[in-house]
Amino acid sequence: MSTWDIRGIMDRIPHRYPFLLVDRVIEVVPGQRIVAIKNVTINEAFFQGHFPGAPVMPGVLIIEALAQAGAALLMLDVPDRASKLIYFTGIDAARFRRPVVPGDQLRLTMDLLKLRSRACKMHGRAEVDGELAAEAEIMSALVDR
Prior knowledge:
By secondary structure, this protein is of the alpha+beta class. The protein contains two helices and six strands.
């Protein structure tokens, strides 16, 4: 088990501001699970239009945050990760249970379900204060840059 700050995350995935949606990794079990944090602030660009006067984090960005956490786990053991990318290839059983608003802290948990040489399936949960906000099964593929 280990933790990563933002530098550790950026060493593993290519996402950068304004699209990097993972702030810290608090748990890693290689080949099995990752738990990460996304601090949701009113300064996020998407809140300007979603929705003025009643800001709500778009569900697709919650799923993207889960996918980024999963990609960080998958890239952990890739020796030449600078020459690789993880593409989001599918989503099943996505459900949104509560709105995510400025001031919330998303706890992003991704559990590896299946791993093949270049493809995987993970189950993700996004929670706020122990309450389920969203969940989905996410498929990804490792590709050359």
